[in-house]
Amino acid sequence: MKKITFLLAFGLLAIPFYSLSQTKLLTATDAAYMNPAVFPASMRQLQWAGNSDEFVYGKGQNVYAQQIKNAEPVVLFTLKTLNSDLEKEGFSALKRLPGLTFVTQDEVLFSNKDTYYQYDYKQHTIKKINQVPATAENMSLNKKNFLVAFTEENNLYLAQDGKVTQITHDTIKADVNGQYVSRNEFGIEKGIFWSPTGNAIAFYRKDQTKVADYPLVDIDHRIAKLKDIKYPMAGTNSEHVTLGVYNIKTGKTLFLDTDSGHFGKWDHYLTAVTWGPEGKYIYTGILNRGQNHMWLNQYDAQTGKFVKTLFEEKDPKYVEPLNPLFFDPSNPDQFIWISRRDGWNHLYLYNTDGKLIKKLTKGPWEVTEFLGYYPGHKVYYKATKESPLQQNVYSTDMRNLKIRRLTPDHGTHSAKVSKDGRYILDSYSSTDVPREYKLLDNKGKTLRVVQKDKDPLKDYKLGKMKIFTLPSPIDSVPLYCRMITPPDFDSTKKYPTIVYVYGGPHVQLITDSWLGGAGLFLNYMADHGYVIFTLDNHGSENRGKKFEQVIFRHLGTEEMKDQMAGVRYLKTLPFVDTTRLGVDGWSFGGFMTLSLMLRHPHVFKVAVAGGPVIDWKYYEVMYGERYMDTPQENPEGYKQASLLNYTQNIHGHILMIHGAVDPIVVWQNGLLFLQKAINEDKPLDYFVYPQQEHNMRGKPRIHLMNKIRTYFDDWL
Amino acid sequence: MKKITFLLAFGLLAIPFYSLSQTKLLTATDAAYMNPAVFPASMRQLQWAGNSDEFVYGKGQNVYAQQIKNAEPVVLFTLKTLNSDLEKEGFSALKRLPGLTFVTQDEVLFSNKDTYYQYDYKQHTIKKINQVPATAENMSLNKKNFLVAFTEENNLYLAQDGKVTQITHDTIKADVNGQYVSRNEFGIEKGIFWSPTGNAIAFYRKDQTKVADYPLVDIDHRIAKLKDIKYPMAGTNSEHVTLGVYNIKTGKTLFLDTDSGHFGKWDHYLTAVTWGPEGKYIYTGILNRGQNHMWLNQYDAQTGKFVKTLFEEKDPKYVEPLNPLFFDPSNPDQFIWISRRDGWNHLYLYNTDGKLIKKLTKGPWEVTEFLGYYPGHKVYYKATKESPLQQNVYSTDMRNLKIRRLTPDHGTHSAKVSKDGRYILDSYSSTDVPREYKLLDNKGKTLRVVQKDKDPLKDYKLGKMKIFTLPSPIDSVPLYCRMITPPDFDSTKKYPTIVYVYGGPHVQLITDSWLGGAGLFLNYMADHGYVIFTLDNHGSENRGKKFEQVIFRHLGTEEMKDQMAGVRYLKTLPFVDTTRLGVDGWSFGGFMTLSLMLRHPHVFKVAVAGGPVIDWKYYEVMYGERYMDTPQENPEGYKQASLLNYTQNIHGHILMIHGAVDPIVVWQNGLLFLQKAINEDKPLDYFVYPQQEHNMRGKPRIHLMNKIRTYFDDWL
Q1: What's the ipTM?
Q2: What fold characterizes domain B28-39+456-647+703-715?
Q3: A629: distance to nearest CA of chain B, Å?
Q4: Which residue from A73, A217, B48, B645 has the highest number of Cβ atoms inside 10 Å of its Cβ?
Q5: Distance between CA atoms of A578 and A603, rounded to whole angstroms?
Q6: Which of B208, B210, B219, B713 is most worth mutating to test chain A (most A CB atoms within 10 A of its CB)?
Q7: Cβ–Cβ of B686/A691 closer than 8 Å?
Q8: pLDDT surpasses 90 at B15
Q9: Cβ–Cβ pairs < 8 A, chains A and B
Q10: In this complex, which of A212, A225, A660 lies closest to B671 when CB atoms are compared?
Q11: What CATH architecture applies to the domain A3-40+457-715?
């Protein structure tokens, strides 16, 4: 593949050069990531083992450790010895290495199907520590007492030595305990929260009885069957979420008093659920349904009573709490709160009285992830300080606020900080590097390159990629753009050109990562002779609050202003065939694709829109109302954004695609658009993937890659 | 348009000639019959008024009568006078002429919404005779006593002077009373049968509790909603049908004893439901689920008890009773039974002892409809005696079996015989005549041309149509074929050619009727430069039992042998571009289209298959098991016919189309095929019509015409 040199400047940022050994073209199977050979090799199960003396990882059938001071990997144990130790105790052998949790250097926890084991690989002793029913889901193992909380259907259970206690007893299926709520918005990924002592479990309960059923049809039965899902559409009845606390000693469950008080009396969300370090209090952010006012509240875990509001956050547009409280291990009265209140995500050090002790970070850049403490001294985090395209790891000294960049290489990093905060396992990719693992000290010094992969695409003939910026017509802010030109590009020829778009919040398509963030599908398209252009418009990720909130209450409109600046730029390029412009996107990108095709008619000749939102009133409450308010509150905004109001502009060739059982953007969106287009006798192409959800997976993804490519081949 | 002269001979049958005044080409709107101007004008509400003295019909806002002896139409009344008479009595006026039933020359019954009226237009007196609830369905007015039987949801009701009596009290929605059963197979169109005296109502009850639900999704709600239908798939649990009898005097309901006896103890169908002329007995054909054995049974309407089996019909393949018993008004002990027992549908005169008195018709042709009696003397019926392409009206003298053809003009006739049997209102079209109405006497003498329409397509430039035959490769029987060549046809050029196919039982595409039975869609395609070829293969309608039953247990296979004979013929024609053959069909024709594309790969380049059955096990019990037996009984036949087993042969360009809420060929068919093709990475095009059933109606039909045409334009 091409190597890209990366140069941060306004204008043309990257000057790529060729390596000449490539011959293969990418296939649809490659583009669908169904060929393992095209992935950069990743280190499985990379983790710190106990403290900071060594880290472990799996490779093949072996588990390795590396000491900080010794680069030579040591085999800790193999699948073979693990199986022999299992069988010695009469347990079933495993087919492959299980997921491992190193509690100390010697003590490993893992599970096989429904059984949990503790393994001392040095002593070769293994014992069963718990068991759950085969139908258990959402298992959460407490590493201290080996209890496992889990769900079955809609209720929460606890297993101890294989004995199961039912915690909740809801008989109505729509009342769900111990699972994620709010459709995974607000950073919510789970519904079980162990107390720090292991004596109690906090859990989400969602009452969905007022939420409408959306009917999906499962055709993989002898006779097709209904599969209802709960789907709260914008402006309609939503979930009611509460937080239960189960006391393991008393066997009693109470619910936090989150429904009373001015902050709780309306529809609201419970975000940022965090146990206080001593297990006495639970903190949660109560966010009103309008999503513009949050109260960070403290509740007594023993009584459920409201203790106090630590602070509030308000915003004329919206507040979006995405993270829990990060308590300082060396000071249980202090925690870090991540807030965008000054326009950028930054770290704020609070105490449990609700007093802001210190703002730890500042500046026109985003903290993207809190990574941990060097207890009492420093915090580690990821941020976009060098460039919105990069995510590096930084430390800030809590005493003097001195910042230090720790990751030496430009690119997009992820990191695991050792428990004592002294070392960092850095994993990154960049426009230069497919994937590299490094061991760093806490000053950013590279102690060792742990793994550096070969380019998995080195034998492929890929297009040339460059990243550059264009000024936004909205506020002249530089917008990042990426262009991939086909292999054997000849600037004197004219090429059909496709704008690949997403454009919605929380997504950034262009990054300083492998292939510039483009993924193989776009390179596959470039291999087939297309110039591929992408621009991250206002609203997209990692550019600060103002940049994002421009889109508030009229999704699509401002985003398109930026995208059209991209189109104007394309039209200045001699090698872009401006009579052969295409546009393609999925999900929010499907919405943008159709918006661009219909609200700026005759710019594009061909559009392929996958899983598109057609009218935001058919999208869900949590995400939809954040950006659009309710249809009742913002009828004009909904009307302006609804693609149902632009069917008269259908022209050229439009292919719409939807997964028939999409539970995210429900199919009603695409079908209503199609119905209206049909009734107006507008030509349109349509494709549906049976039994597929919001994104095509597996073999259907290969078919999809071919489908999109041939559609552009046929019509562009 | 072109005029066709029609010449019955083996080989080339029609030599058309041009008229040169045409300029317009057919549009998609014309092809969808959404332009009223392209219909031949029909006479609305044409009927005999009481006896045979005059017949009546509506035209504009007026109701006319013509006396037998006076060609001059007389206005009986107008909407204006009707409304003035209605308003005089305080009733609401009407916006257009209602559906009229002339009980005598003066006495007219009609209904407006929920109210029934009796009108004497001579005396200008109008009175309300009954009323049903606004939610009533399946209303059945008894013209003697003005009682109205009707259904609401799943129960049967009776209204008398507006007072409603509930007859059935089923609380389970799947138990349905008074509605059609057996999915309209076996000629069943209704579920309410008034006794001749009006003292009792027989009604179908279907217990569908064991029939599976099939989920349809209605997207025209704020949030899409489930709309379950009962859909018994081949080999699965079916309906259980019984016949209730409600006695109006006693208010009691009993059920006929149709479940006991060897004929009733298995799954079975109740067909040919007929009251004896005196209202004492009810006759029904009990047909086993295997559909190869029917018992024509008599039941006592007062007790429900089985009286006797009049006769049985068996067939190694299947028996298909489609008609009730036709009792002779002059002899209540005699009736006519239509049977295909000798290989052709013919009339059999029976008495109520079950004795066959006389076979009234015979020969290698089909009686297609029983029209009535000249009481005691003659029977009138339609038959294919001249040609399988024609349907003429005949009389047979019951005494000497002398046949007389009554309709003088070749073509496809329908007829209304006057009550006394002396006159016939003949309506027909033919390859020469778009639509003509004639008054005939009962010897076939034309007394008057009542209406002859101008050709509604006279200004259109249409292709040339010819009808001819080819010998079947199965048994050398001549197969009827129709070819439409494009306007301005030049036999030295090569044309893309589309085979339009149906191929299933009970349908005949080629007839001696207007446009040769082709309809405007095929002419629209010809107008766009295609040669359109159609062949009625073995299995299709009106060619006798043997011709039809060849298809038994392996649908598709024999039908294709005939179709491929058509393809071989096309390949002999210099003007057919054999590299550009397409195939198109809907429903059974969609099944045939895909079968031809996949089981004879690389013959056709492009296929468009609408609403196709993909695997007969996803089709319904009644129709499916008649031709295929159950999947358990005939696994090889189902396997051979299933298109799921031929996805590896997908090639060329295939467009599949389905209505998203098709309750006839459920969408599971198309989606399963699509899913398999996707998993095998086979290219395929797909289109779905939201909220549309088995056939596209209204505006979606215009879109469909365009869709099919452009698909062939793009790829053929």
Answers
A1: 0.92
A2: Rossmann fold (3.40.50)
A3: 17
A4: A217
A5: 8
A6: B219
A7: no
A8: no
A9: 114
A10: A660
A11: 3-Layer(aba) Sandwich (3.40)
